[in-house]
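Practice record 12: protein with zinc ion.
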Amino acid sequence: MVVTTELVGLIHMTTRPFHNLLLPRIAVLLVLGALPSCAEPAAPVHGGAGTSPTQKSRPPEKRPDSSYRPPRGFTELQSVAGRVARASGHKIVWRLQPGANPGPLVRIRGTVNDCTIFVHPLAARKVPPNTWAFLFGHEFAHLTENLGTHSATSPENELQADITGARYAMAAGYRIEAFLGWVLTEPDQKSDSHGSLHQRVRAIARKFGVPWRTIERESKRAASYRAGR
Ligand SMILES: [Zn+2]
């Protein structure tokens, strides 16, 4: 049975405030001609197998952290999605495409055998790769766990997709505390279909045993990252 589903992830609740926060800033950058190009050369990757003497002498806190930097182009987002899909333990046939603008931050259509993830084109250049890992995990979990669609979901399903998706992202090596800190920088929102965003953060933190003070610390870093963009 092939059913076309249209799902929006954890952030379907946060799309509007996210764009309210982000888009005016991007508009200013566009006016100033200061928006970084997607074609800018990729920065060197640190923390890989080979470490040069220069990199060794570099303080760890100066190294690029995928929690607090923009993606290095669309190919990095594809790489993140691929890692999360592989870590899920499911065979997921997926593709990534720029979504609509204006439009949701992320959504997925299709089935595990053939799905398309749409990412907001501006967010694709701004939201850190670590955050994308959990958003992709949430979307994949909707399909692997049959957790309903955007129009027919529930707070229970959303939390389950959060938890299952977080397992995928963590198995792929991404940091849940940084992701939860990032979500906390979004205004809380409540809806019948999705519950309270910040309550979901608390529930996920409890599930994985992440101390609240750790998330608050990460949230401050996420807020300063956003302020500096
Ligand atoms: Zn969802």
